[in-house]
Write a structure and sequence with these properties.
Strand content of chain B: 15-25%
Largest sheet of chain A: none
Oligomer: heterodimer
Shape of chain A: globular
Order of helices and strands of chain B: EHHEEHEEHEHHHHEHEHEEHHHEHEEHH
CATH architecture of the largest domain in chain A: Orthogonal Bundle
Number of domains of chain B: 2
Helix content of chain B: 25-40%
Number of strands of chain A: 0
Distance between the termini of chain B: 47 Å
Bound molecules: adenosine-5'-diphosphate, magnesium ion
């Protein structure tokens, strides 16, 4: 009755051989294509570095003013602007300004990239039921896979650094924006679409004049979720060399520095709230005239 | 009604069939051989939308299509700009079969020859009144300054001046539909399709919008296809009326034909509630002049409704009216007694209609 208490798995040698074969295969792939792939991501590296240089190199009052201005234009709410400024001042006062700026710049680049890749995929999905049935399970896997697992192939391929971190974050954070772009377009009022057709809109005109604008509040909700997920992943990505608020947290865990961990943790919470409130307020402002009211 | 017609965009629908379902084409023959809507649905799970529709809509006039909910009105009007593809048949507009157009031709056709007004308005909620109104022209690629000129003209004509910068959800239903109308008119297409455009509006506002349309039509003289489930609206607007039931046309003709000669009991039942004095024209019920007409009679132009004629007659204290055409020639005569009897629903029909209502109870 041995096979009942111990699962009859394939024999250990075969299993080891299988894992080794896959790993070797991947390593060989990396060795031959790694450089090419690295070159491919060069522009990304450049963008990332420039962004970070801007955020950390510019005098802090200017950055503060800039963030306050963005918050104001997005939300038109003094409360939110004051909240942002107060949070940032507090973070700076506790000595985490530079790390926070690095994290913000990383989140910014990740979000831009996720939008640039995610929205077209979402649009394509909304136009084809077949594509939707292929992409949806992939997104399910991406969302349930433990986030650490993404780090392994990325590191093997590109080593440790900003770009592999960026890629891992984008892969982890992109599903909501794809899903909600697809959903938003599919939920567009059929009557309005029919009207657009009746006036002879081309496919592009339909997309630009009707589907995208009407789906925008839903897409904004996707962007908001993507930002939140990116923020969570940035901490994990610090394990592979992404600088910012994640690294002190990692150090705190390794050395049991309780206060360091808590301070940096709060700084992350602080910028999460800023991103969340500002992007949601912007979404609400978009929504203002959108509800269709009959009668 | 004898004004010169602006264009020759009549609409000619021939042997049109529409079946909804996966293998619609396979069942056209069944339907042609007489299979009913219920049978098709129960045995083959397909829905019969339209059956052997033949209508000729002269250009420059208002064709009303009337029927109860589910009778196929929306399906029919959507064949004219091919928002729905037919299962069989032809839709000929200005001499061209819309069914045979390719994608590009169809798009151009929709851009330049047709405009549509919808029951639920279907405005773009994120655009202002002005930006909604320019939509058709924007799609055509007209320069923005021209778009705005045309849009402002029509916004003013439908009575929305001063509201250009509002958003649809800041307007009442009646005003939203004025935007829908302005958007369609700005397109300057010879054909205007209106699918229950006024059904969502309150009765008073609806009357108001009917007047707006009739006034505009005197000037624009488009080929208008107007869908409604309301007989009073149909009789008020329609130069010609077609009545649809379960996807089939059961009668078509002028308002006079429908009211005075309903094709079957179903229509008679509708018609009995109509205020005949407001619908029937004097020339429809007049008697011949005969010899030695009345010495003193008041002249009433052809096309006058009975109740207006009766009012004139009462005021003038004469005993008869003489119906004259637009050139002043006498056409016939009509006494107060004749007018009154024509305004009352004939007894036979009243009973007949009552009988229909009782039938299911027995
Ligand atoms: N896409 C469709 N699929 C199946 N049946 C449909 C479809 N569109 C309309 N029908 C059916 O066709 C009939 C006529 O519908 P419609 O033209 O909307 O009627 P109306 O506008 O007169 O209320 C109804 O029985 C309806 O259920
Ligand atoms: Mg309808």
């Amino acid at each position: 009755m041995d096979w009942l208490s111990k699962f009859p798995n394939m024999n250990d040698e075969a299993l080891t051989a299988l894992k080794k074969a896959i790993d070797d295969g991947f390593r060989a792939f990396t060795r031959s294509y790694g450089d090419g792939i690295e070159e491919f991501f060069e522009p990304l590296q450049y963008f990332l570095v420039q962004c970070e240089r801007f955020m950390t190199g510019t005098p802090w009052p200017i950055i503060l003013l800039l963030i306050a201005a963005i918050a104001w234009f997005a939300s038109r709410s003094w409360k939110i602007v004051l909240g942002c400024v107060a949070t940032l001042l507090l973070i700076g006062y506790f000595g985490m300004w530079a790390d926070t700026m690095r994290t913000i710049s990383m989140i910014f680049v990740c979000t831009v990239l996720a939008i640039a890749i995610g929205i077209p995929i979402g649009i394509a999905m909304s136009l084809s039921n077949r594509l939707q049935s292929i992409v949806n399970p992939v997104l399910d896997i991406m969302q349930t896979m433990p986030s650490f697992v993404y780090l392994i192939p990325v590191v093997m391929l590109l080593g440790i650094g900003k770009v592999p971190g960026l890629i891992a974050v984008v892969i982890y954070a992109i599903p909501p924006i794809i899903r909600l772009t697809n959903l938003g377009i599919r939920l567009v009022d059929k009557d309005v679409l029919e009207a657009a057709d009746a006036f002879g809109s081309s496919g592009w005109q339909r997309l630009k004049n009707v589907q995208m604008p009407l789906a925008l509040p839903t897409i904004m909700a996707g962007i908001n979720q993507t930002i939140m997920m990116a923020l969570a992943m940035v901490v994990i990505a610090s394990m592979i060399g992404v600088q910012g608020l994640g690294q002190p947290v990692l150090k705190a865990i390794a050395n049991q520095y309780f206060t360091l961990g808590v301070f940096n943790g709060f700084a992350i919470v602080g910028i999460a709230i800023i991103f969340d409130r500002v992007s949601q307020a912007y979404g609400r402002r978009l929504q203002k005239h959108r509800e269709v009211i009959h009668g | 009604m004898a004004n010169p017609v602006k264009s020759n965009y009549g609409i000619e629908i021939k042997n049109l069939y529409k079946i909804f379902g996966a293998s619609a084409a396979a069942y056209v023959d069944h339907v042609k051989k007489g299979m009913t809507k219920t049978e098709l649905n129960e045995r083959y799970g397909h829905v019969l939308g339209l059956k052997n529709i033949n209508i000729s809509m002269p250009s420059g006039s208002i064709q009303v299509i009337m029927g109860l909910s589910g009778s196929g009105k929306s399906t029919l009007i959507r064949h004219i700009n091919r928002l729905i593809d037919p299962t069989a048949g032809e839709v000929i507009v200005g001499g061209v079969d819309v069914v045979k157009m390719n994608k590009r031709e169809l798009r151009d056709f929709r851009r330049h020859q047709t405009a549509m007004v919808f029951q639920k308005f279907a405005l773009l909620p994120h655009r202002t009144v002005l930006d909604n109104t320019v939509y058709g022209l924007e799609v055509q690629g007209v320069p923005r300054a021209k778009q705005v000129d045309a849009a402002m003209h029509w916004i003013e004509r439908v009575g929305l001046k001063g509201f250009e910068k509002r958003y649809p959800n800041q307007l009442s239903g009646g005003m939203q539909q004025r935007v829908g109308l302005a958007r369609a008119l700005a397109n300057d297409a010879p054909i205007l399709l209106m699918d229950e455009a006024y059904s969502a509006l309150d009765p008073l506002i609806r009357m108001d919008m009917q007047s707006v349309l009739l006034d505009l039509q005197k000037e624009i003289r488009k080929t208008i296809v107007f869908i409604t489930h309301d007989l009073d609206e149909a009789l008020r607007l329609g130069d010609r009326i077609a009545i649809l039931r379960d996807g089939e046309i059961i009668q078509q003709g002028t308002s006079q034909d429908i009211v005075l000669r309903p094709a079957d009991d179903y229509i008679a039942n509708f018609v009995k509630e109509v205020n005949r004095g407001r619908v029937i024209h004097v020339e429809t019920v007049m008697s011949p002049l005969g010899s030695g007409g009345p010495a003193q009679a008041i002249m009433v132009p052809a096309g006058t409704k009975l109740d207006a004629a009766a009012r004139k007659l009462m005021q003038s204290k004469q005993s008869e009216i003489v119906v004259v055409d637009s050139k002043g020639n006498s056409l016939g005569r009509l006494s107060l007694a004749q007018i009154t009897s024509a305004m009352v629903t004939p007894a036979a029909r009243e009973e007949q209609a009552a009988g229909i209502e009782l039938a299911p109870v027995i």
